[in-house]
Amino acid sequence: MDEPLLEAPVVILTPIKDCASHLPAYVERIEALRYPVEALSIGLLESDSTDATWPLAQSLVERLERRCHRVSLVKRDFGFNMPAQVPRWMPAYQKARRTTLARARNHLLFSALRDETWVLWLDVDVIRFQSDLIQQLLATGREIVQPHCVTRPGGPTFDRNGWTHHGTRWLENYRGQSLVRLDAVGGTVLLVKADHHRDGLIFPAFRYGVSNENVRPVHSCWERGEIETEGLGIMASDMGIQCWGMPDLEVIHAPE
């Protein structure tokens, strides 16, 4: 693989909310990345936290600035919080929760992206990944690609927003293959060529793709069309861009 590609400018974008317990370790993982300082930037957007996420993030900027070329930290509240003790996956709250997350991702993208060649979306609660993760994703030569997010090595797929066959198959079904085509993507870890974002590829905060043959069928709690990261995957398809997944490149998400 061409060496300049593996050192192309990358901005890591991470939406943060109620994650004070994860932030210090997140910074440590960024510090451990084997990627050139001059080619790595960070963008964080905090919204609607009820814990100490915002002041803690402010206090960690100096450390990130020592590791990265540029650091962007912004605050943008959207006025949405899950009710106490309600799991974030509860169907009744999915549309509101993921609409808000899509808006947060888009606001972060538009505020933090400068002249970078690639965007790496990285959730704050992905607790373990390879120090050369960026290089491994770039080396695929694909313009939208995600690793396999699990909560334990060899375990079932955690980020089930990356799927094929109308949402019935995930990366766990393709182990042993280095790369597979995906119809929708997850956002726990996702590499996107930045020019696709510049060309209009966003995280829809609305049902997108009602006429696309890859969207899931209507069922009792889900209208036709995809939202947020899955909507991005369908939008990429409409733009003529193929999404990919790496079933055997595992990253570990904190258990829920």
Describe the structure.
The protein is of the alpha/beta class and 256 residues long. It has a single domain (3-253), classed as Spore Coat Polysaccharide Biosynthesis Protein SpsA, Chain A (Alpha-Beta Complex). It is built from seven helices and nine strands, in the order αβαβαβαββαβββααβ. Helix 2 (23-32) runs parallel beside helix 3. The model has no long low-confidence stretch (mean pLDDT 93).
How many domain units? 1
Q: What is the residue-averaged pLDDT?
A: 93
What is the level-2 CATH architecture name? Alpha-Beta Complex
CATH class: Alpha Beta
Along the chain, the helix and strand elements come as HEHEHEHEEHEEEHHE
What characteristic shape results from the CA principal axes?
A: globular
Radius of gyration: 17 Å
Structural class: alpha/beta
How many strand units? 9
Task: Tell me briefly what this model is.
With 256 residues, the protein is of the alpha/beta class. It has helices spanning 3-6, 23-32, 53-67, 94-112, 133-138, 194-198, 228-238, and strands at 10-16, 40-46, 70-75, 118-122, 126-128, 144-150, 180-182, 189-193, 243-253.
List the keywords.
single chain; 256 residues; alpha/beta; Spore Coat Polysaccharide Biosynthesis Protein SpsA, Chain A; nine-stranded mixed beta sheet; 27% helix; globular
Would you spell out the secondary-structure blueprint of this structure?
Layout: H1 3-6, E1 10-16, H2 23-32, E2 40-46, H3 53-67, E3 70-75, H4 94-112, E4 118-122, E5 126-128, H5 133-138, E6 144-150, E7 180-182, E8 189-193, H6 194-198, H7 228-238, E9 243-253
Parallel strand pairs: 1-2, 1-4, 2-3, 6-9
Antiparallel strand pairs: 4-8, 5-9, 6-8, 7-9
Helix pairs in contact: 2-3
